[in-house]
Write a structure and sequence with these properties.
With about 140 residues, this protein is mainly alpha-helical. It has a single domain, classed as Up-down Bundle (Four Helix Bundle (Hemerythrin (Met), subunit A)). The chain has four helices and no strands. Helix 2 runs antiparallel to helix 3. The chain binds fe (ii) ion (2 copies).
Length: about 140
């Protein structure tokens, strides 16, 4: 067993339960990929991890975009553009890995995922969540 790449930290919490849950699951998946890449035993396991992360990212972004639409989030377009870029860069790295028949230590895919975790969740998702929660609170106050 190798060190995990990301330890879950409550500073990643954004305050919307279902999205926080998905972020945690994604971090688990990313750690699993990290372990598979570092241990490099089964290529099929790495391929499965890559596919799982792709499916989860896609579903997570779709859910988050639904939440933003529901609350008329004013920075929706910029946030969606970030999602699209993240998914594009992940897909590109994933395809490189899948097309590479050799061993792949230190693959840039981990940097891309780290960038996603550190920057996107902590900045863009948190900003979105604060505004969504303010809107929910002000709606709740209406008579
Ligand atoms: Fe997110
Ligand atoms: Fe997001």
């Amino acid at each position: 067993m190798t060190d995990t790449l990301f330890k879950w930290d409550d500073s990643f919490l954004i305050g919307i339960e279902e999205l926080d849950h998905e972020h945690k699951v994604l971090i688990d998946d990313i750690n699993r990929l990290h372990e598979e890449l570092a241990g490099y035993k089964e290529r099929s396991e790495i391929e499965k991890c890559l596919g799982d992360i792709y499916v989860r990212m896609q579903a997570h972004f779709a859910l988050e975009e639904r939440v933003m639409k529901e609350h008329d989030y004013e920075f929706f377009d910029g946030h969606k553009r970030e999602h699209d870029k993240l998914l594009d860069s992940y897909t590109e790295s994933m395809m490189q890995l899948l097309n590479d028949s050799g061993v792949f230590p230190n693959n840039p895919i981990e940097d891309a995922l780290e960038h996603w975790i550190l920057n996107h969740i902590i900045t863009s998702d948190k900003k979105m969540s604060l505004m969504v929660q303010e809107k929910k609170a002000s709606k709740a106050k209406l008579p």
